[in-house]
Amino acid sequence: MPQFKTVRGMRDFLPEEAKIMKYIEDKARRVAELYGYQEIITPVVESYELLAAKAGEEIRSRMFAFRDLGDRMVALRPEFTASVARLVATTLRNEPKPLRLFSVGSVYRYDEPQRGRYREFWQSNYELMGSDKPEADAEIIMLTNSLMNAVGLRNCTFKIGHVGVLRGIMAEENLEEKTQNTAMQLMDKKLYDDALKLVKDAGAQEKCVTTLEKLVELKGADVFETVERMKECVKNYKKAEAAVENLYEILKLISESKSKIDIAVDAGFARGLEYYTGMIFEVTMPEIDTALGGGGRYDRLIELFGGEPTPAVGVAHGIDRIMLAMQTQKVPLEKREENKVVIIPAKEEFIGKAMDISRMLRDASIPTEVEVMGRKITKALEDADRRQIKYAIIVGEKELKEEAVVLRDLTKREQKTVKIRKIIEEIA
Fold first, then answer.
1. Domains of the chain
2. Half-sphere exposure of residue 207, counting CA atoms within 13 Å on the CB side?
3. Which pLDDT belongs to residue 56?
4. pLDDT (tens digit, 9 = 90+) per residue, 330-384?
5. Burial bucket for residue 166 (CB in 10 Å: 0-12, 13-18, 19+)
């Protein structure tokens, strides 16, 4: 018989890991509720044209793309934003703004598998559509901080930049959008020398190259001082000046919110997706060398998909990366006290009654298992103890004659005979 393995870059999550993943998902949903985001579900498979439109060359080259049986070019989603933008450009186009939308699920990229990077991974995704105000950008950063706090992560740092600063300078040099995109992708990979050479070779003036060179070096945790230095740097580049001012307004609102967020401004920061137009950010922690989440402003994507001009800002958080971060920092899950029960029939003829009692307990929302391995009472109790089940109900002949069972508290090592009709009362 062949020994089947998972496809490279895909993983199985065993119960303990699945539990952590679902725990993070629950926290992500709770944060969505707290900030007023409504959950939507979009397809895993979308048209290739939609997903490729503004994904960026790096992501386009790593998409799981194929022709379906109708000879249509389709792909597995590499991220959520394109799908949400499609929805807002079509079905939700007449909905009142702002739209606060939340999604959670798996996404796919043909990356080289390594720690924290797989070909199938999970994200929680938040999009705020309809506002071009700095308060919308500030909200997305605060929301991300809320999620990191909710799952118990420590020492998270936010790196914040603004695409409009770099693009503003290149646009004033009349560099083609394709050249700008390539330069930004090189910067995203930290290949700054290659990016600057590309800009120079495209015919940019020396002043432009020097300004970009200074910005690439400009970063700091004293955010307002760094922004002031950025202002000095981009003088007389009108679009870039406006972008720096916008970044200042966003940071000022975050500061005024009194959110305790560790922020560093990085003027040369770029992200791989081509659709970004404004503020961009990533959240990281020292123990893991990959971002736990990231996002930014994209004001022209919905229009590109045939919708009304709609400013938007969003973020995606890596659920499996957050799990890795929690495991690395040994963050305990919040314990939910549940009175789990196992029902052990003393004889085979009592299995039906055990099933009846289990149904009664589950109807009362008490998690209940029935012993299905045919084990003797002692072995079944040992197994329940090992799995930290709180109560065992033993269905025995003598007790059943009295319409009763033995209720054993496995934590206190105590037991008593209880009428079947009073079990729920006793356990609750």
1. 15-328 (3.30.930.10), 341-427 (3.40.50.800)
2. 8
3. 77
4. 999 987 777 899 999 999 999 999 999 999 999 999 999 999 999 999 999 999 9
5. buried
